[in-house]
């Protein structure tokens, strides 16, 4: 990975990377693989009103909140974005994201599509990556295989997925999650390319070119 410390020694803002896509596409799986392979990326832990699943830990998977607590966070403007998704609230704590970006580190948000589009309004300079399933039938297989949802909830997630895929055009990149390793490699390539594009490697490149002329 590239460093966000520019040659002159000035620290620049990190990149906000938003990984989104329909439920069951593999956002959680891909992000936990990235967490292992690219520990320099910082993951934002969301708040939610949904019940913890077996093995999930407070502050690691989510900050678990009651509906009242969640509404209070919204009122106090502590949420960068929030969305209601299949009957529960999910949101990104604002301060952690802003403080981490200010230290020059890249932050990953793994969030659903409505929330991603709200973040885009506040951080248009972010990198918005839509994780695509290889097909709708494979998406259904993954939701069934995961075994966390009832048939009714799976049908509801699939119906939401069709509307979400229609919003692909608002994203900077689409990555098909065929194999987890492929998806991770593509995401890492995108982040590296974005660093290069923002001239993080040679932020003073024009001065340097003047010097060699
Ligand atoms: N808008 C928004 N969506 C979130 C946030 N955190 C998680 N999500 C999304 O909410 C959806 C439901 O998450 P979850 O209940 O963990 O189910 P799963 O991802 O389908 O296993 C997923 O699409 C998550 O990516 C958040 O902070 N904001
Ligand atoms: N590339 C892949 N190929 C096959 N199965 C996958 C792949 N990525 C994820 N899965 C499986 O699909 C299911 C949904 O993945 P998950 O990460 O929970 O999705 P999301 O976070 O987008 O809701 C899980 O059972 C996971 O093991």
From TrEMBL:
It is an enzyme of class 2 (transferase). Its main location: cytoplasm. Its EC number is 2.7.4.8. It comes from Paenibacillus chartarius. Keywords: ATP-binding, Cytoplasm, Kinase, Nucleotide-binding, Transferase. The keyword Transferase applies. Residues 14-192 form the Guanylate kinase-like domain. This is Guanylate kinase. It comes from the Bacteria. The lineage of its organism: Bacteria, Bacillati, Bacillota, Bacilli, Bacillales. ATP binds at residues 21-28. Essential for recycling GMP and indirectly, cGMP. Belongs to the guanylate kinase family. One of its GO terms (molecular function) is GMP kinase activity. It catalyses: GMP + ATP = GDP + ADP. The keyword ATP-binding applies.
């Amino acid at each position: 990975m590239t460093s966000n410390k520019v040659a002159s020694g000035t620290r620049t803002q990190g990149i906000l990377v938003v990984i989104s896509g329909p439920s069951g596409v593999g956002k959680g799986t891909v992000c936990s693989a990235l967490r292992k392979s690219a520990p320099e990326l910082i993951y934002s832990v969301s708040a939610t009103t949904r019940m913890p699943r077996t093995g999930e830990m407070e502050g690691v998977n989510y900050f678990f909140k009651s509906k009242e607590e969640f509404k209070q966070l919204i009122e106090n403007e502590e949420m960068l974005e929030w969305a209601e998704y299949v009957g529960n609230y999910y949101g990104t704590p604002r301060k952690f994201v802003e403080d981490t970006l200010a230290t020059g580190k890249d932050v990953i948000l793994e969030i659903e599509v409505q929330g991603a589009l709200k973040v885009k309004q506040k951080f248009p300079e972010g990198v918005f990556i839509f994780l695509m399933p290889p097909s709708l039938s494979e998406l259904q297989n993954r939701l069934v295989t995961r075994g966390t949802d009832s048939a009714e909830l799976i049908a509801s997630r699939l119906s939401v997925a069709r509307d979400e895929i229609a919003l692909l055009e608002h994203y900077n990149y689409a990555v098909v999650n065929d194999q987890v390793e492929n998806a991770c490699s593509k995401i890492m390539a995108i982040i590296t390319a974005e660093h290069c594009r923002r001239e993080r490697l040679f932020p003073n490149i024009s001065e340097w070119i003047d010097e060699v002329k």
